[in-house]
Specification:
heterodimer; A: 406 residues; 2 domains; 6-stranded mixed β-barrel; two-stranded antiparallel ribbon; 15 helices; B: 232 residues; Rossmann fold; 4-stranded antiparallel sheet; globular
Chain lengths: 406, 232
């Protein structure tokens, strides 16, 4: 009966209720879209950087991160791999040998990041093969070939089947020099990476650097990326932490984490302002709904309705109005997010150039993470309860005789 | 000997209107027995509504005590007083008595629901009550679809729903035409006679006063006269 009473009460003034619902609807829709875009961009940015470079977690020889030299590499260890893969959160391992070298073609030279990779696991994790825009992908683990980022290819003015010379420092001060056939040009999501990366099969990289069976890092991909610290602890518990160090991508790339945190905080402020604006609308409606029924409330108390029950009905009314708007907003949000997840917004022309210049992929990805929708519902629910506190307080303080005579 | 249902002793009420005290009731003594049908009359501002509010526990006297069915209601804490009203006192107000969004059935059933009466018993009782006030056919009508007289009859039915010992009615016929007023009074008199419910109602209306068996007149917050009469 009280649910029904609250429901009927909110429709006493249809127009006012509809306007209030509409304000909640648009606020939730905007908040969802906003959060979905920012989270989508962050997730994509993290995925791009994490899968192409660091992994969510990375294992090194202890001390490698402070002195990133091939001399601080470690020997690939099948037992270690098996122990790591026995952790259910670990989905894939990506052994890498990462060094810097000087690349040269014709009269052009450039310092580059050389990534020795396992072609099969990279193909599986980050679909590196799909990023090849010219030429092809590695055929075997021993190919004496390299894949060059498109930005770098442009700078060196190289094309597929050209021969690239790499000169660098090998393991234990040996010299590393070799000629490699360019079998493909890659276009990676991260423009920064695109401009200075060279991929080669792990064995080829190990041979080049005289580092037989050695790795500088073992990147770990995870099934659940939200509990990064928990996953790190779980991995640490399975390895010898005196010999190895485990780092999260946030530790390895603090500037990206800080950028996301700072950017996210700015977006939260905008969403808070949005909700403050609709709170005033909702609060006004609730106050009007309460004060215009003062006499009725007095009569209800007179006939035996307890004030707290009456305050509960007012709370129900607030929750109902808010949740109707919220669910409509979520429904609209789901449709919008689905649409843009299917068909992400891709920038072109000068906007694309601006994005790339700042190191971003010129695509707006939307995140469909359920957390976004659940959070909005919870925010609106908490708002509805908070906003009903004052009218509820007024009901509790109501003197029936004054209310009846009002 | 009949049981005393309302016993008010030295009830005074002073309102502090803009720092100038207004004495609404002054040392009122009132003694009403079970089953009486009493009209409270007097000019506007004589304290009729104030006295009804004191007896109904809607307002507190500045001094004095009010006993209803042997319970000193002036000492009851708020929630207990609300429960006491729910179980023992029915109210009929001058106008806008009913919850506009609920039907007659729901308005009457609301009180029974507050008393946690099971649905089946509730529905039976609502129908009985609507039949008693002659509005069974308006069971699913909302207040806006009823005339003023019909609304007051539904209000009487709601006041009766909890089987109270007393019904307090504050000018119940003030907004009704003469036919509706007479009809309402007949229903109240019948319920008083058949179900022994005590009625105490304030009124200005001479035709209503004539129906009462006891007429208490208030003037300037004091009982001016208390007359037992034969109703016409």
């Amino acid at each position: 009966m009280f649910l029904k009473l609250a429901w009927l009460n909110i429709w006493r003034n249809k127009r006012r209720t509809l306007i209030t619902i509409a304000s909640v609807f648009f606020a939730v829709l905007l908040a969802i879209t906003f959060r979905s875009v920012t989270d989508g961009v962050y997730e994509n940015m993290i995925h791009n950087v994490v899968s192409y470079s660091s992994g969510y977690l990375q294992i090194h020889k202890k001390g490698y991160w402070d002195e990133q030299s091939i001399d601080n590499s470690f020997e690939a260890n099948e037992q270690l791999n098996q122990r790591l893969l026995s952790n259910p959160k670990v989905t894939q391992l990506m052994p890498r040998l990462e060094t810097f070298a000087l690349s040269s073609f014709g009269d052009k030279t450039k310092g580059v990041l050389v990534l020795g990779i396992d072609p099969a696991s990279e193909k599986m994790v980050n679909q590196l093969d799909e990023k090849v825009i010219e030429g092809g992908y590695f055929q075997s683990e021993n190919d004496n070939a390299v894949l060059v980022g498109s930005g770098l290819a442009e700078q060196l003015n190289v094309k597929v089947n050209d021969t690239l010379i790499l000169i660098g420092q090998g393991y234990h001060a040996s010299s590393a020099a070799g000629k490699f056939n360019i079998i493909g040009i890659l276009k990676l999501g991260s423009p920064e990476l695109n401009g200075n990366v060279i991929y080669m099969p792990l064995r080829t990289a190990q041979n080049l650097h005289g580092a037989e069976n050695r790795l500088t890092s073992l990147s770990i991909m995870l099934s659940k990326t939200s509990d990064l610290e928990g996953s790190k602890n779980a991995v640490e518990s399975t390895i010898d932490t005196d010999a190895y160090e485990v780092m999260t991508w946030k530790q390895m790339m603090p500037e990206m984490d800080q950028f996301i945190e700072a950017d996210s905080a700015g977006h939260y402020i905008i969403i808070i302002v949005l909700y403050i604006i609709i709170s005033f609308g909702l609060f006004g409606t609730l106050l009007m709904m309460t004060f215009e029924r003062n006499r009725e409330f007095g009569i209800l108390i007179a006939i035996g309705m307890k004030k707290r029950l009456l305050a509960f009905v007012v709370l129900l009314e607030s929750i109902m109005i808010s949740l109707i708007g919220c669910f409509m907003g979520i429904l609209g949000g789901i449709l919008l997010v689905r649409l843009f997840t299917e068909y992400p917004i891709q920038f072109s022309g000068s906007l694309q150039e601006v994005y790339e210049e700042y190191g971003f992929e010129p695509i707006i990805y939307f995140s469909g993470h359920p957390r976004i929708f659940i959070n909005q519902t919870l925010i609106v629910l908490v708002l509805a309860i908070l906003l009903a506190l004052y009218p509820g307080y007024k009901v509790i303080r109501l003197r029936p005789v004054e209310a009846i005579n009002s | 000997m009949k049981k005393t249902i309302i016993d008010a002793h030295n009830v005074s009420k002073t309102y502090n209107e803009k720092m100038i005290p207004v004495k609404a009731l002054q040392d009122v003594h009132l003694h009403i027995e079970e089953g009486e049908f009493v009209a409270l009359v007097g000019p506007s501002g004589s304290g009729k509504s104030t006295l009804l509010n004191m007896i109904g526990g809607l307002d507190e006297p500045s001094s004095g005590t009010v006993f209803v069915d042997g319970v000193e209601i002036t000492k009851l804490p708020e929630n207990k007083l609300i429960d006491f009203r729910l179980e023992n006192i029915g109210f009929v107000f001058q106008s806008f008595n009913l919850i506009p969004v609920l039907t007659s059935k729901e308005n009457i059933g609301f009180v029974l629901q507050l008393q946690k009466v099971p649905k089946k018993d509730r529905e039976k009782r609502v129908l009985e009550l609507l039949q008693e006030v002659g509005l069974a056919e308006k069971i699913n009508s909302r207040p806006g679809e009823l005339s003023g007289g019909q609304q007051q009859r539904v209000a009487v039915a709601r006041a009766l729903a909890s089987k109270p010992k007393i019904i307090l009615a504050d000018e119940p016929t003030a907004n009704l035409d003469s036919k509706s007023a007479a009809n309402l009074l007949d229903i109240m008199a019948k319920l008083n006679k058949e179900e022994k419910i005590t009625f105490l109602f304030s009124t200005h209306d001479q035709r209503v006063i004539e129906k009462a068996r006891r007429v208490i007149t208030l003037v300037d917050g004091k009982v001016d006269s208390d007359i037992v009469q034969t109703p016409t």
